[in-house]
Amino acid sequence: MSTPTVRATSGTTPWTVTLADGTHTWLGDEAAELGGADAGPSPSCLILSGLATCTVITLQMYAQRKSWPLERVEVEAQLNPAGKPADGASEITRRITLHGALDEVQRGRLLQIANACPMHKLLTGEVRIASSLG
Description:
Blueprint: E1 7-10, E2 17-20, E3 25-28, H1 43-66, E4 70-79, E5 92-100, H2 104-114, H3 118-124
Antiparallel strand pairs: 1-2, 2-3, 4-5
């Protein structure tokens, strides 16, 4: 498995950024009321989408390995739904809806597994960012 790498490039439209990983290309942007073109998700939504996608995939993989009757997963993630906390931290709420004939033990285990998905671990762990000029 290769190291994930994303390249972000500004264009001629203010705040619209082209993102690419070598295989896929997508846009990031800001909302029109912030001066953007609203041509793609905001940086916050991109972070939340990574967590939500990872949660769905992790739960599907786990349920498949266990041969559990998980039919579908929905995840809603929000950043600071009650506003920015006074202590300066950020809060993400994640609501996971599981579809299928799962018993309570399976549902509880899937919640534990969701909390162990790679993006959850990344966002709740220590992250160091080394920046340099190219």
